[in-house]
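Example record

The entry below shows one chain as it appears in the dataset: sequence first, then structure tokens.
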Amino acid sequence: MIFFTDRDLGSLFPQILSDAGIHVEKHDDHFPNNDTPDASWLSEVGRNKWFAISKDKRIRYRQNELNAVMQAGVGLFLVVGKASHREHAENFVTCINKIERFLNKYAPPFIAKVYRPSSEQQRRGSRKKGRVELYLSHEEWSKRGR
């Protein structure tokens, strides 16, 4: 399982994943140009059968990018919530078993959200991990009429 991190996650996010033993391909290693359209890198991710990670929650609202995710066969994980790259990366690492279970249940293409534990859980010092939820499946996308 190989993950591709979008440029919006910087260099720290993929480094933390890599340090945890997760295979990561970084955007800038494949697309040194900062203005590479999302549709271009999504096509590459799909062609390589990687899973994409992004913080760009707007991608799910832009029809051309939704279409690119689905047509390229990409499994896209959106890290959501206000947090630093470090916090998102650490949560992703602690959720990796949940992500693997999610991947056993859902085949690409899809868009899923990776949530951190709630503020209340964090304040209480809970050891509860974040969660992974399906946002959009290929079937749901097809029903929308693209």
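Notes for this example: The chain has a mean pLDDT of 88. Helices lie at 12-19, 27-30, 38-48, 63-72, 85-94, 96-105, 119-123, 138-143.
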